[in-house]
Amino acid sequence: MRVAVVTESFLPSLNGVTTSVLRVLDHLAEQGHEAIVVCPGPAPREYAGFPVFPVPALDYRGFRAGVPSRRLTRAVLEFGPDVLHAAAPFGIGAQALALARRHGIASVAIFQTDVARYTRSYGLSLTHHAAWRWIRRVHSSADLTLAPSRASLDDLAAVGVERTAWWGRGVDSVLYHPNRRTSTAGRALRERLAPQGQALVGYVGRLAPEKNVTELAPLARMRGARLVVVGDGPDRGALERELSGTDAVMLGRLEGEELATAYAALDVFTHTGTSETFGQTLQEAMASGLPVVAPAAGGPIDLVAAGESGFLVPPHDRAALVGAVGALVRDPGMRARMGEAGRRAILPRSWRALCAQLVEHYEHVAEPVTIR
After folding, report:
1. Closest CA to 311 of 299, 298, 297, 325
2. How far is CA 12 from the centre of its chain?
3. Is 147 in the same domain as 233?
4. Does the pLDDT at position 169 exceed 70?
5. Which domain holds residue 221?
6. CATH number at residue 117
7. Per-residue pLDDT averaged across 44-54, rounded?
8. Which residues contact 222 (CB under 8 A, 6 or more apart)?
9. Could you tell me the pTM of the whole model?
10. Does a structural domain hold residue 371?
């Protein structure tokens, strides 16, 4: 199968969209499919043996937004795909889906970034409804839209997007594993971060307005615990000011084995974003054997079994967040039970299984319609 992947984010930017696209490309290469990538520039010339076509892009608060261009049109049409995969389409993804419809190319759109809710986080509330209208227009031009959670599917249905289905996200349960806690690197990190045996409460992710990271601040003043923040972004300065005078640790952005070791060194994982269509860091934390505390909104509702693998708290309720995290800090047995339950829950969610399901979606939309 020939797949043209048009994505709003790609290397060197690392985020949920990029990670998903990379795993899809890895799977396509492994299974012998052909593919190209069209993405905002600058970008590497190829990935997994597939050519990459960067298009002009603009910067906005750490995001690279691709600008629709003839380069996209030329790359897609010259490749002649069986299916077009639009990852988190909004700008160049919208152009690609319109192009596919005009030329009779089957298309699958991945709803992964809740742009409409992000507009409020960035102080653009007047554009919230306009953003949802644009999302409906873009996704209605796809043959099929895939969303990663029940909440996302409900949101799409509410604005009139039809032809939808569920497609989740995989997790590398070998890389993210509780055994890293007792590795040489894991023990060294815990000794450095918890010299008095504190419970380590961690956050991993982009430090940006939509993540509500300043709501982590009360956790840094919790007795018997130490807050550890992994990540970077435009709200780093605001969070550092909120954490002034505490012993919270900011490790910056980590990748690969360093990131996996950091997860495993923690005792509790917490997340504060309320506009997550899925919540990949929650899944990585669960694979690492951690109990999770997250808002009862969006993707976390599907991922966290409340009272079994963690706690879901009301969005923006700092007292509830502190209460749930505090209960886990005080009870090592509860942490162990919930961590084990979380890891068991995510073990079937391998990238291999999820990408195989995605290829089935490709084949379904690419099947010629038989007229009787």
Report:
1. 325
2. 16
3. no
4. yes
5. 178-346
6. 3.40.50.2000
7. 98
8. 201, 322, 325, 326, 329
9. 0.84
10. no
